[in-house]
Write a structure and sequence with these properties.
Mean pLDDT: 86
Strand order of the largest sheet: 2-3-4-1-5
Shape: elongated
Order of helices and strands: HEHEHHEHEHHEH
Oligomer: single chain
Radius of gyration: 17 Å
Helix content: 40-55%
Distance between the termini: 18 Å
């Protein structure tokens, strides 16, 4: 019991950087990829950002069964309170219409699971709606480094790589002494 880890959000150097990268994506309406070791603080920071900004943030967490076009569309549609529709095409059209002009940021956690088609849909959300002269929305992909490797190996379209405004890798070994003391106060003395 005295060694139990406090699993709440801690403002470590890594989690604060993740938080600021999400903010950057929203303000600049761009695509950001944050990847690295499990336990580095990526998800905690994303959830904290969502809790701090619930009106302007959509947070979805993927699992293997929801990583395709229909699954990601269903998760986003539910987060946007859209009615269910019969096709992925209709769902993604409705998602884009609902997001138009809202300046929301979409956070996709466990993004290394994304298939190519939903990645293509997500990468265009930051694009400006030139017809209506409305800016797009920020998109943040969070996952392990498999996500980065897939993009680097060209398994993901070049357009996705070229739209990536920020790409950050996080390693638990990069946690500072102060971070470790914050995470494990019972071992400081």
């Amino acid at each position: 019991e005295p060694y139990k880890l406090d699993e709440g959000y801690k403002p470590t150097s890594i989690s604060e950087d993740v938080y600021q990268c999400i903010r950057f994506a929203q303000i600049n309406r761009t695509l950001v990829m944050l990847h690295g070791d499990a336990g580095a603080g990526k998800t905690k920071a994303a959830v904290k950002y969502y809790r701090d900004n619930p009106q302007s943030t959509i947070y979805i967490r993927l699992d293997p069964s929801m990583a395709g076009l229909a699954g990601v569309g269903e998760l986003l549609g539910a987060a946007l309170d859209l009615p269910a529709v019969s096709s992925s095409k209709q769902m993604w059209q409705a998602i884009r219409a609902r997001l138009r002009g809202t300046n929301k940021v979409i956070i996709v956690d466990e993004a290394q699971l994304l298939k190519r088609a939903p990645m293509d849909e997500l990468r265009i959300l930051p694009d400006e709606d030139e017809v209506n002269e409305l800016p797009g929305n920020g998109v943040v992909l969070i996952g392990n480094s498999e996500l980065y490797e897939r993009i680097r190996r060209i398994e993901i379209r070049k357009q996705t790589r070229s739209r990536m405004a920020v790409q950050r890798a996080y390693r638990t070994r990069d946690l500072t002494k102060e971070d470790v003391q914050m995470l494990f106060p019972q071992f400081t003395g």
